[in-house]
């Protein structure tokens, strides 16, 4: 789902992936911005997983505010993606389990600092320093260029945030023009190119038995200064190489053709586009074509869920039929989910 947005809308690229060590745990500390939906984190998680051919050991574990886990429907979904409620306990747990963790030292202050303070790092929390020292984990500074322009001219309205019990309440004139409701405007983002740079790993020379809070704050401040220098340098040097393609293609990867793009533009062209997706997927998986089938659709749609996709918005019926299985048994393969 994220791939077309990352490749064509945000045109994302990352450099420095070889600096991430194979040993775990490891913490990736990144600046946070965007004044809305965390596109900077979502795109980086996608780039990391795709570069390493979706291996489990290279899936980034991140955090979201506990507020989002209380929302019906959204909480189980983001938990399945790999996000955890932001707390020191969960950060400690992921480090003890040897995970690759994506952490935003600025917290909410980073994503809600507003347009006037763009590319200015806010104060860092010391939680990641304490966990890195306790588990002897390296911290890799990572900076994202372009996320500040996803929602330009936006400012945080603290009074409305307190009234709605939200962590931030971003509002931009562009949101009012393109999205009349604030709820939908939270996903608003302009097609700014997202570029990531991962720096050399840092190990804090602190002893958890004798280190004080002042020592942790000094270490966090030193890393903040280094990341600010990386931000300033990256803004002056906008050229980054694109990541290489994964060594083994995924069966879900589909190369768009000219006729596919034409079908996507037609009001009812997407059922035919789904047929092309289905047949391309079956061919990639090595399924032989059924006898007597036409060349443009060699694989027959014989299941009820597959036939649903030929009707406008029919995929909602499949989602409704398997909603319980998709939320409670998300570790099953897609073939098992479609079989009920």
Describe the protein in words:
With 340 residues, the chain is an alpha/beta fold. It contains 17 helices and 9 strands. The protein has a 5-stranded mixed beta sheet, sandwiched between helices. Strands 3-4 form a two-stranded parallel sheet. Helix 5 runs parallel beside helix 7 (127-135) and helix 12 packs antiparallel against helix 13. The longest helix is centred in the middle third of the chain and has 24 residues, at 213-236.
What's a quick, concise take on this entry?
This protein has 340 residues and is an alpha/beta fold. The protein has helices at residues 3-9, 39-51, 66-69, 74-81, 88-96, 108-111, 127-135, 158-164, 173-178, 182-185, 213-236, 258-265, 270-284, 304-308, 315-321, 323-328, 334-338, and strands at residues 13-15, 26-30, 62-64, 83-85, 100-103, 139-145, 155-156, 170-171, 195-198.
